[in-house]
Amino acid sequence: MIGHEDIQDELSARLDGEPGRLSDDVVEAHLAACERCRAFYERARSLKDMLGSDEPEKVEPQAVAPDLTAEILAEVETEWRRAAGTRQALLATCRVVLVVAGLLFAVWAVMTVAATGGLTTTDTEAGVLAPDAQPELAAMLGQAAAVRLATAITLFFGAWRPRILPGFLVFLCACTMFNLGFAMRDLVLDLAGTVQVAGLLLYAVTTVVAAVACWLSWDAGRAGGWRILGAGPSELG
């Protein structure tokens, strides 16, 4: 005998799209005479409509984002090449300036040595210094010539190997500051000569250019110069 549970199972199967086991006439006849199964069928159909179809919703495939890696790398490489080219051009200019400054210091040293002529002359007949001799001034000029010649050699080596310039910066800065300090009175009183002012400017420009060349010659920028100043012998080797 067909009961309520059988009819309700049949109705559930049909709502789910499954093939029925009972004939349509039997199911329709039972629904016409059974209010309980009709109510079950209405609730089941309403719930089915609320939940929607069991078929999986088709999801539109998302558009694949274009791979911009190649374009970004190309742009970065272009910027890097441009920056590297500018950096190399500026470094080459600094090296030329260092060579020119070294030549000027060398010429200045030779002129200083030439200025000592006559300051240590002797009286050939008496075998003593001439009355107008100034041996102390000659000695000071000789020391100044030695410092200027050492500066020239330092600049030549710095232009040849800019990476060693950090070790020379202390010497160049010290020369610039001491020369400026000793000439401060003459500058304030307007007593400084042309050669003295030109020498101060030469030291100042050389120090600045050497610092810029030092900065440009290191891949790590400013950190490279400071690192070598605090490095030990093993790190420099």
UniProtKB/TrEMBL annotation:
It holds the Pfam family zf-HC2. The lineage of its organism: Bacteria, Bacillati, Actinomycetota, Actinomycetes, Mycobacteriales. InterPro entries: Anti_sigma_zinc_sf, Znf_put. It comes from Corynebacterium frankenforstense DSM 45800. Keywords: Membrane, Transcription, Transcription regulation, Transmembrane, Transmembrane helix. Gene3D superfamilies: Anti-sigma factor, zinc-finger domain. This is Putative zinc-finger domain-containing protein. Residues 5-38 form the Putative zinc-finger domain. It comes from the Bacteria. The chain crosses the membrane at residues 96-117, 137-157, 164-184, 196-218.
